[in-house]
Amino acid sequence: MLRVAVVDDDTTYRKEIISMLAKYEKEYGENFSITEYTDGDELVEKYHSDFDIILLDVEMQFVDGMTAAERIREVDREVIIVFITNMPQYAIKGYKVDALDYILKPISYYPFSQTIKRAIGRRIVPDKKYLRFKIRGGEQKAAISEIRYIEVIGHDMIIHTINGDINTKGTIREMEESLKEDYFFLCNKGFLVNLALVDRVQGSDIILGDECVQVSRAKKKPFMDALNNYMRTMGH
Prior knowledge:
Layout lengths: L1 E6 L3 H18 L3 E6 L2 H6 L7 E5 L7 H9 L6 E6 L4 H5 L6 E4 L4 H14 L7 E6 L2 E6 L3 E7 L2 E6 L2 E6 L2 H7 L5 E5 L2 E4 L5 E3 L2 E4 L2 E4 L2 H18 L2
Parallel strand pairs: 1-2, 1-3, 3-4, 4-5
Antiparallel strand pairs: 6-7, 8-9, 8-12, 9-10, 11-12, 13-14, 14-15
């Protein structure tokens, strides 16, 4: 089932889009779970990265579609965004938020269906595993495969990902338990490292991209054993 958000402050257009999605379901055997929003502020207020596709009107009263898309992209880089507009010039701006396409009003079914088909084709197949983290004002998800390492000081936690840092709360023990099947290694008291993203080891320094984490003397041999085991397991 594909989760679709329909965001438009015009009730007539929302109903029309939902009707076209229902027609698409019958034609192509898809199954949509549809959530309606009457403005961009409703969508972004407590956005939880819960959609596969967002059909987003550009011109709305409180939070316009472009602003909503920018805020969504801060926490979700993978959801497919399609703009709905009667102003084609917005298509150029759409590239800034990695929008897939735009649908022109008045909406015609055939171009609408072709855009939906493209959106479904581009959708990232959920073979990635994700963790959700509470952040100020909501939640943010991160693909486990994109987490370089996790740093914990007291109950303050920083999730260092290849796309930036996520600040949250938690304990290293909780994270170690959550990631026990995902090749993470506790290299010292407050650092949990993703073995898949280790580029090299120099002395006591573990290099992960442009970042460096130290492995404690007591953990050095177990860490190297774990890293070598990971490399053998993955055939590297």
